[in-house]
Specification:
By secondary structure, this protein is of the alpha+beta class. Strands 2, 3, 4, 5, 6 and 9 form a 6-stranded antiparallel β-sheet that branches. A 5-stranded antiparallel β-sheet has the order 1-11-10-7-8. α1 runs antiparallel to α2. It is globular, with a radius of gyration of 17 Å. The termini are close together.
Length: 243
C-alpha cells in the first residue's frame, strides 16, 4: 500500500482551507480523504479541520481488515454524518462561523475493493488500464444542470456558477452522503482531489498521475494546477497497492 498526499495554497487565495488526511492500516489496507472548506473569513478552515479530525479519528479507531463490506459503508457514512452534525452545531454556537461547511471525499482501499463516500464537489478518480474514470459526481448547481440536459459538460466547465455546491458537510442539520463500492486491480491508481485541481481536468491526467506515483510525490500535479492559474487551493491524495 502506497499513499501520497499534498496540499498547496495555490496562487490566488490568501489562505488554505483544504485539508488532506491518509493512513496506511495494513499491507493492502488504507484510506485517504480530501476536504475543501467554505465560509466567510476563515470559517472554511474550521469546518474542514473539524471534519478531518473527526473522520480521521473514527476511521483509525474502527476500520478493520476483516470487516464486512456493509460495515465499512456504515463506518464511512456514520463518520461523515457525525462530522456534519459537529460542524453544524459549532456554526450555530459562534456567529463568526455561521454558514460554514466543507466538502468531503473519502476512499478506503482494501485489497481489490475500493469504497468511496463523498459530499460536495471534491472528486475521486480511478486510473485503470490507461483510462481516467470519475467515481463521484459533483453535488453542484452546474452538475444538476448537466443532468437535466440544460448545458453540456464543456459548458459546465466555464459556467459562472460552477463553484456553487448544493451539498456540503455542516451547512444543514442533516446531509445525504453518496457511497459506492468498486472492484479494482493491484496496478490501479486512485486519485482524490479538491476542485483546485479537478477544475483543470480538460485533458487525460493518466501520464501525470503515473509520473507522480513513480516520483513518490504529488508535486507534479500541484505544479500543473498552478501552471494553469492556481485559482484555488489544491489538494491531492494518490493511493495504490503497487508502484
Amino acid at each position: 500500500m502506497n499513499i501520497l498526499s499534498m496540499t498547496d495554497i495555490g496562487l490566488v487565495r490568501e489562505h488554505n482551507e483544504d485539508i488532506c488526511r491518509s493512513q496506511v492500516l495494513g499491507p493492502s489496507f488504507g484510506y485517504g480523504a480530501v476536504y475543501d472548506g467554505m465560509g466567510g473569513v476563515q470559517s472554511g478552515d474550521v469546518a474542514s479541520a473539524l471534519a478531518a479530525d473527526l473522520v480521521d479519528y473514527t476511521l483509525q479507531r474502527n476500520l478493520q481488515w476483516e470487516m464486512s463490506d456493509a460495515a465499512i459503508q456504515t463506518t464511512l457514512t456514520s463518520a461523515l454524518l457525525a462530522a456534519n452534525s459537529t460542524i453544524h452545531e459549532r456554526s450555530q454556537q459562534e456567529e463568526d462561523l455561521r454558514g460554514m461547511g466543507t466538502t468531503a471525499a473519502v476512499a478506503v482501499l482494501r485489497g481489490n475493493q475500493l469504497f468511496v463516500a463523498h459530499v460536495g464537489d471534491s472528486r475521486i478518480y480511478l486510473f485503470s488500464g490507461g483510462r481516467q474514470i470519475p467515481l463521484t459526481k459533483d453535488h453542484s448547481v452546474v452538475q444538476s444542470m448537466v443532468d437535466r440536459g440544460e448545458i453540456t459538460e464543456d459548458e459546465a466547465r466555464i459556467h459562472p456558477q460552477k463553484h456553487y455546491i448544493t451539498r456540503a458537510l455542516g451547512v444543514d442539520p442533516t446531509v445525504d452522503v453518496d457511497f459506492d463500492q468498486f472492484a479494482v486491480q493491484e496496478t490501479d491508481r486512485v486519485l482524490l482531489c479538491s476542485d483546485g485541481l479537478s477544475n483543470y481536468f480538460e485533458q487525460d491526467m493518466t501520464e501525470l498521475v503515473e509520473a507522480c506515483i513513480q516520483a513518490g510525490s504529488p508535486q507534479q500535479l500541484i505544479d500543473f494546477a498552478n501552471q494553469q492559474g492556481g485559482m484555488d487551493n489544491i489538494t491531492v491524495v494518490l493511493m495504490t497497492q503497487r508502484v
